[in-house]
Predict the structure.
Amino acid sequence: MKTSPPEAQTAPARKCHCVINHPVTDEERAELDEAFGCARAVGDSLGLLLLVARLAGPCPARV
């Protein structure tokens, strides 16, 4: 049985180009809030640390 590869999907362009991407829009903040909930639910302490890093620090896109 032949299967076709999934269609290529492009991610939406983000304004922040930092190594640890910072949320800039309301949609990105909502995504981050949902990710916090998931990380808390499964007890992912490393994930929580990385999510906090996304909120902290200076970002050129936030100016």
Summary: Residues 26-58 form one domain.
